[in-house]
Amino acid sequence: MLKSVRVLVSTSAVFLLLGWAVPPDSRQDQQDKPKSEEKRQEQGKPARQDQPQANRQQDQQQNDKRQQGRDRQDQQREQGRQQQGRHQQDNSANQRQQARDQQDQQRQQQQRRDNATRQDQQQARGRQDQQQRERQQRDSSARQQEQQTQQQDQQRQQHDQRDNSARQQSQARGQQDQQHQQRQQQDRGSAQGRSPDQERRQQVAWQGDRAHSWQSEHRTWQQRGGYSGYRVPEERFRGYYGQDHEFRFYSLPVMYVGGHRRFQYGGYWFGLVDPWPEYWSNDWYDSDDVYVDDNGDGYYLYNRRYPRDRIAISFYVN
């Protein structure tokens, strides 16, 4: 038994020497060995049946303590790794949060820049709109002034035209009056120069065209189906015919065609289609002023002494 104790003590001394001689990394590796390996080593040791029960319990307690120490170290290392992982996760979360914060800050800055740009654009558009309105107002005012000037010029022109027209009408009336006086003088001279026999023959000729009942014997051009004779050009007609151009028949050249008389006046020949009313004076062709006018449906002869009566006439080229 003493021999076994000496062997155990020698073995323990060798182990202690080996423990001091082994590097720290080797000791750490030996501490990190699983308990199962240590148990196998213990089991592989020669059985010491002669060791006291108390020593075995003490060795077992030491082994348990060592194993608990290793377990605590393993747990601490695991906790350290977990804590390091949590630190890394926290750092990654913080980095992501910082990135989001930076993105939010950049978005806010971009929004502020966009808002400032929109405000500048709106202000610029507002200034442009204001300038455009001012230009439109100036243009409108200029147009109104131009229109007023044109209206004033037009009114002056109209006034001048009316004055010129009034002067022309006055001159025309003066000329007409002068011509009328000249015709009257000529008519009086012609009447005085005619012999009684000529007056009698002319009266007999005119009496043949006198109506017995003019209201039933005369017809308008509309009743006749419309005027189909020669049309005098408008400018020529207004120069020699109408209410402003009166004459008397006895001073006109006369031509008989097919037993019907035609009279020449204003460069054209015309003849009476209707008889003259029976209530007119016997010498109306000598004493009454007459004129030719267009009533719309054809030409008519009007007597100033009997303004309501109109005798249908027709123009001829020759």
Major β-sheet annotation: 6 strands, antiparallel
- Distance between termini? 187 Å
Radius of gyration: 73 Å
Q: Give the low-confidence spans.
A: 1-9, 13-30, 187-191
> Major sheet: order of its strands?
1-2-3-6-5-4
Number of helices: 8
Structural class: alpha+beta
Shape: rod-shaped
Give the strand tally.
6
Strand content: 5-15%
Mean pLDDT: 79
Helix content: 55-70%
Notable traits:
single chain, 318 residues, alpha+beta, 6-stranded antiparallel β-sheet, 8 helices, 6 strands, rod-shaped, disordered N terminus
Explain the overall architecture.
- With 318 residues, the chain is an alpha+beta fold.
- Among the domains are: 97-161; 204-316, no CATH class.
- Helices cover 65% and strands 11% of the residues.
- A six-stranded antiparallel sheet has the order 1-2-3-6-5-4, with no helix packed on it.
- It is rod-shaped and about 205 Å long.
- The protein starts with a helix and ends with a strand.
- 7% of the residues are buried.
